[in-house]
Write a structure and sequence with these properties.
CATH class of the largest domain in chain A: Alpha Beta
Number of domains of chain A: 4
Radius of gyration of chain A: 30 Å
Distance between the termini of chain B: 8 Å
Strand content of chain A: 5-15%
Strand order of the largest sheet of chain A: 9-16-15-11-12-13-14-10
Largest sheet of chain B: 2 strands, antiparallel
Structural class of chain B: mainly alpha
Helix content of chain B: 55-70%
Helix content of chain A: 40-55%
CATH superfamily of chain B: DhaL domain
CATH architecture of chain B: Alpha Horseshoe
Strand content of chain B: under 5%
Number of strands of chain B: 2
Largest interface: A-B, 20 and 21 residues
Number of helices of chain B: 9
CATH architecture of the largest domain in chain A: Alpha-Beta Barrel
Oligomer: heterodimer
Number of helices of chain A: 33
Chain lengths: ~850, ~220
């Protein structure tokens, strides 16, 4: 990608311009700041050598653009270019453009794949934005349009601030995906049409909320261009703050009505289909009214007051009450409160004491004689908007915290009904995206079910929500926004479906399904503490998967005999820096202590390109699943790896622990990992740190290469654990997230089962045990086959353990061995499924 | 170096090092003066910038017996440490001045001429400046011309450099009535007249330091 170097006399200005540009684009652009000189007393100036280093930091074959502030900064830039090798010099250009506008315009063009010359031109034209209105016509003069040969469509922009920097940037990046000329015309403001691929053009059009714009494109591309625009508009260009539609005449503006239903009143509102499909987070059924949870502050009419002192006293009382409520919630959660949760709650209390926030509110109550509720609402809304406008996912998440604490204080100021985001009646809650703090505050409320437009099962919120005993479905898509508040809907967690218009037949069927589900759940609940033993006395081990300390209670209560997989990625996510050795040790110790002697299998981190961790500064990867993840990453980033190994070892004094390495593909990798472990053990030994020297070492079998080499890997370790999710997609060369090939990406494919069979045979040949920790381990249809193949340990979601034991307790080993041999020869997963279902039916009836 | 029979001989790397030390000393001494000159027509940082740059030069002075390497190290330090426009300008001067002498332990008088001429060519290009624009070139160019003439007459390095320093001083003074056409001072137009150019002044001081250093090491 083209790189940018920002040269300024001020280090802070250069960093600031970089920060601004970073925030403008979805993809990360290489930008280096080269500002100031190394002299604390006179820090202003430019350093040509620093510029040279900065060029090298962002250099690629596509080139580098340098921007500078004042005259001598340009000299330093020229100097640095002269110091480059001749072949490098060709790729580096000085761009004579206004620093801020130029860099922003360039960043947007680079993000959408512009060539060096285009990027430079766009940046140099950016000066026009600094002098708006004056020459709108000129900038567009050459673009005489031939209306006869284009198609146009009109849109209403609903973003509160219109097409300001970020939305404009998103629009340009989207439009740059098309070949032909695309024009945008602000009809409301009567602006001339501008090039929709030019950030400057868009910004000059001064589109604000509720403005009507016309998009013009070539007939060949028009449909696709308009569809793309429609998606942007419907999604508010990725922003939350939407202006109320103009059309409906406002009746008495009660606070609770002030929130406009998303997409209401726009002609481009999506045609609602009657079912939305997402991903299962927790199974179960719910029928009831849908309620959109406001992840923003309610609107409150500004009201005047007479006695500012009394109002300030009221405000201070509300702050104190809110704090007491948070403290009480923390107390109530007791031991199950992880450090992460504690940090969230503590942050909420910090906001209540922040002098910038509360002092400003008091000041305005006094000087403007305004009611506390309206000033507080305005202050917290602005703060939340600021956070949600940031690119950093972590900081965006803070917006939810601010809204949460804002609403909490409002409740004490104006009463529950007007302030709370939660409905009085039991309802199915709809979120745009669920945040961890949402799960925490929902834990003790009566909610029928939860669904969200976006979000993944491996997110922190997803992990937390999966332990709720209500149906939870994520990733239903933007269509969820179009569902009206109060509409009666049916949520099926297991099938990950939201039925928007359930008819009596649907409801009757749901009631039957729910009855069966509840009966099974009750039966499973009763069976969860029994042994996982077949009728003929063959014992297997039922284990649970976990990822976060918060799950400890659910795991301890699940009937699991051990933890077959503890994912550790979450220890590293949602924070500013990696946890140090002491912190990690403490977390592992707390989990081990909570397990009371049940063994814990800790998988070392499998941070992949699809799970961004800001401070790790990983490069973007085209194929993260085939990329720098798991052990591959750990063996390169040895400091992180050593810290984790040391922490697991130190925690091993607390109870039984195993270490498991993910993504092993070669014997060499395994040996390198074991060498590091030995080195860490030596270090701890020398430091006199106690640890369990005999703790078991195992590897994940998830790369087909490892399954193939299982006979050589097995003698080197104490156990294997098969990761079926990755093994299946690698084996079948089919992405499990791609619905078109989902049938292929099925662990019941005979090819996958054969690979599992070989791994089990290799393990037993070497005399080690073998488990499975992928989704397949908890699958009722897979259980008899895996039992027949000889699997020793089944590790699954804690909620699946009871029903798993029920299934196992109806089986006999020889019958399962026959079944397994038979299904390995079938023609595909569908046939395996049918055969196993028939097998289980037969058992039921006999 | 105190061997008098060597008085006609080359300017050694040690002499170059002494030059840079003397430059640093005089720039530190004249720091307030240079800043004072820069105040009415520039941004009042020339004394500071040059002092900082040359202090760093002395601190990182290469002890190689290689004039080219010493001058290149000076250039890189100035580019990095001076901060203002003088950084890249003096940096270019030393970079281009040293280029022909990589691996050479000493300079002949004719080499001194080359050194000045190459350095000046670099400054002209970097600053897009010509003589008469009220810049450092107005001290450097007369110095180079005087040096060249003296060497052509067969004068020793010591004598030739003394002539160069005298010419630089004349050139520096000649900037007083000029109207600035480059840099911050050019924004002032006619109001830049009647001020001595700080860049020409620092150039004069540096050239005088060279003449003194070579004289001392040749005694």
């Amino acid at each position: 990608m083209i790189g940018i170097v920002v040269v300024s006399h001020s280090a802070r200005l250069a960093e600031g311009v970089k920060e601004l540009a970073d925030g403008m684009t979805q993809v990360e652009i290489p930008i280096a700041a080269a500002g100031g000189v190394d002299d604390p007393e006179n820090p202003l100036g430019t350093d040509g050598i620093r510029v040279l280093e900065a060029i090298h930091e962002v250099m690629s074959d596509e080139g580098v653009l340098i921007f500078a502030d004042l005259g001598s900064a340009k000299l330093s830039a020229d100097m640095a270019i002269d110091l480059l090798e001749p072949d490098e010099q060709e790729k580096v250009k000085f761009c004579d453009a206004p620093l801020v506008e130029g860099v922003l315009a360039a960043a947007v063009q680079i993000a959408s794949g512009g060539k060096l010359a285009d990027v430079m031109r766009e940046a140099q034209e950016a000066g026009a934005v600094a002098a708006p209105e004056a020459d709108t016509a000129e900038t567009d003069a050459p673009a005489a349009r031939d209306d006869s040969n284009t198609r146009a469509e009109e849109f209403v922009i609903r973003n509160h601030h219109g097409l300001h920097a970020r939305p404009a940037s998103l629009l340009v990046q989207t439009m740059n995906g098309f070949d032909g000329d695309i024009r945008l015309e602000n009809l409301t403001k009567g602006k001339k049409p501008v090039n929709a691929k030019s950030i400057n053009g868009i910004m000059l059009s001064a589109v604000t909320g509720n403005d009507h714009v016309r998009l013009t494109a070539s007939p060949e591309e028009a449909d696709a261009v308009f569809a793309a625009m429609r998606r942007l508009v419907e999604d508010n260009f990725g922003e939350d703050d939407e202006v109320p539609a103009e059309a409906p005449a406002p009746s008495a503006p009660a606070p609770s009505e002030a929130q406009a239903a998303p997409s209401a009143g726009t002609s481009e509102a999506p045609e609602a289909t009657d079912t939305l499909t997402g991903i299962t987070i927790a199974p179960g059924f719910a029928l009831g009214p849908l309620h959109h949870v406001r992840q923003e502050m309610p609107t409150i009419e500004a009201a005047k007051i007479d006695d500012p002192d009394a109002e300030i006293a009221r405000f201070d009382k509300a702050l104190a009450e809110a704090e007491a409520e948070i403290e009480a919630a923390m107390q109530a959660m007791g031991d199950s409160l992880s450090d992460y949760d504690r940090q969230i709650f503590s942050a909420h209390i910090t906001y209540l004491h922040d002098p910038e926030i509360t002092g400003g509110v008091r000041e305005r109550i006094r000087s403007e004689k305004l009611a506390a509720a309206s000033v507080w609402q305005e202050t917290m809304s602005e703060l939340a908007d600021t956070y949600s406008g940031l690119e950093d996912k972590l900081l965006q998440g803070r917006a939810a915290d601010i809204v949460d604490v804002g609403q909490r204080v409002l409740r004490f100021l104006i009463g529950d009904e007007a302030a709370s985001a939660l409905p009085d009646e039991p309802a199915i809650l709809a979120f745009h995206e669920l945040h961890p703090s949402d799960v925490l505050r929902l834990a003790d409320t009566s909610v029928l079910g939860i669904c969200s437009a976006v979000g993944g099962e491996t997110s922190h919120a997803g992990i937390l929500a999966s332990n709720l005993s209500i149906p939870v479905v994520f990733s239903l898509g933007e269509g969820l926004n179009g569902v009206k508040d109060g509409q009666k809907v049916l949520l099926d967690g297991g099938k990950a479906r939201l039925d928007l218009e359930p008819d009596p037949d649907d409801i009757a069927k749901m009631e039957r399904d729910r009855a069966a589900f509840e009966a099974l759940r009750a039966e499973a609940e009763a069976a969860k503490d029994l042994a996982a033993e077949t009728k003929d006395g063959h014992l297997v081990r039922a284990a649970a998967n976990m990822a976060a300390l918060e799950e400890l209670a659910a795991v301890a209560d699940s009937g699991a005999e051990e933890i077959g997989l503890m994912r550790t990625e979450f220890l590293f996510m949602d924070r500013d820096a990696a946890p140090d050795e002491d912190e990690q040790t403490e977390i592992y110790k707390r989990i081990i202590a909570g397990l009371k002697g049940k063994p814990l299998t800790v998988r070392t981190m499998d941070i992949g390109g699809d799970k961004p961790v800001a401070y790790m500064d990983r490069p973007a990867e085209e194929n993260p699943n085939l990329g720098w993840r798991g052990l591959r990453y750990s063996l390169d980033e040895t400091a992180l790896f050593d810290t984790q190994l040391a922490a697991i070892l130190r925690a091993s004094v607390e109870g039984p622990v195993r270490i498991m390495f993910p993504m092993v593909a070669t014997l060499q990798e395994l040996r390198a990992a074991k060498d590091r472990l030995q080195a860490v053990k030596d270090r701890l030994g020398k430091a006199g740190q106690p640890f369990d020297d005999k703790l078991e070492i195992g590897i994940m079998i998830e790369v087909p290469a490892a399954a193939e080499m299982a006979d050589l890997l097995a003698p080197e370790v104490d156990f294997f654990s098969i990761g079926t999710n990755d093994l299946t997609q690698y084996m079948m060369a089919a992405d499990r997230a791609n619905p078109k090939v989902q049938k292929l990406s099925d662990p019941l494919q005979p090819a996958v089962l054969r690979m599992v069979a070989r791994a089990i045979a290799a393990a037993h040949e070497a005399g080690i045990w073998i488990g499975m920790c992928g989704a397949m381990a908890g699958n009722r249809l897979a259980a008899p086959v895996l039992l027949g193949l000889g699997l020793d340990e089944f590790s699954m979601k804690p909620t699946d353990i009871g029903s798993f034991k029920l299934t196992i307790r109806r089986l006999t080993k020889p019958a399962c061995e026959e079944l397994a041999a038979e299904v390995l020869k079938l023609d595909g997963a569908e046939a395996v499924r049918k055969r196993v279902a028939a097998f289980l039916d037969e058992i039921e009836t006999t | 170096m105190s061997d008098t029979t060597n008085s006609e001989a080359a300017v050694s790397a040690a002499a170059i090092r002494l030059w840079l030390q003397k430059s640093a000393e005089v720039l530190a001494e004249k720091r307030a003066y240079l800043t004072e000159l820069d105040s009415p027509i520039g941004d009042a940082d020339h004394g500071n910038n040059m002092d900082r740059g040359f202090k760093a030069v002395v601190a990182t002075l290469s002890d190689k017996e290689d004039v080219g390497a010493v001058l290149k190290a000076v250039a890189m330090t100035l580019i990095s440490k001076v901060g203002g426009a003088s950084g890249p300008l003096y940096g270019t001067f030393f970079l281009d001045a040293g280029k022909p002498f990589a691996g050479k332990a000493a300079l002949e008088p004719a080499d001194l001429v080359t050194m000045f001429e190459d350095g000046i060519a670099g400054v002209k290009k970097r600053g897009r400046a010509e003589p008469g624009m009220k810049t450092m070139l107005d001290a450097q160019i007369p110095a180079a011309e005087a040096l060249k003439a003296a060497v052509a007459e067969g004068k020793s390095a010591v004598e030739a450099l003394k002539a160069a320093a005298d010419a630089a001083e004349e050139g520096m003074k000649a900037t007083i009535p000029m109207q600035a056409q480059r840099g911050r001072a050019s924004y002032l137009g006619e109001r830049s007249i009647d001020h001595q150019d700080p860049g020409a002044t620092s150039s004069y001081l540096i050239i005088r330091a060279l003449a003194e250093a070579v004289a001392e090491t040749s005694q």
